[in-house]
Amino acid sequence: MMESPAEIAVTGRNVDVSDHYRSHIADKLAHLEHFNQRIVRFDVELNHEQNPRQSKASRRVVITARGKGTAVRAEACGADAHAALDAAVSRLESQLRRSHDRHQVHHYRHQRPTSAPVRA
After folding, report:
1. What pLDDT score was predicted for residue 31?
2. What integer best gives the mean pLDDT of the chain?
3. How far apart are CA 42 and CA 6, in angstroms?
4. Concatenated DSSP letters for 71-113?
5. What does the pLDDT read at residue 26?
6. At what angle do helices 81-102 and 19-30 cross, to 10 degrees?
7. In the CATH scheme, what is the homologous superfamily, with its name and number, of domain 7-79?
8. How far apart are CA 79 and CA 13, in angstroms?
9. Are 31 and 64 in contact (CB under 8 A)?
């Protein structure tokens, strides 16, 4: 059964978000659904800091993954929007990967396989 892809809501604070950048965000977030099939919505917030002293971290991206269970949130800053998005996606991916690994069943790890011959 193929589930529908998660909804992606992109909001910009002090910045205009182009259609090309929205499709770039959708491409980046598409592979994250592999780790958690129960994600229903991604909220992506883009923020631009107007202060010239903050030029190295002027773009901030906050991604919140919502669904059944707890919400997972990651944020990152960068000099441009693409670098900040890449950093936020990698942080979110590591959190989802850890959560996915925690839910794996590992109780079979120390058992001997049934097809292996028993040596005396």
Report:
1. 84
2. 82
3. 7
4. -EEEEEEESSHHHHHHHHHHHHHHHHHHHHHHTS--TTTTSPP
5. 92
6. 20
7. Ribosome hibernation promotion factor-like (3.30.160.100)
8. 16
9. no
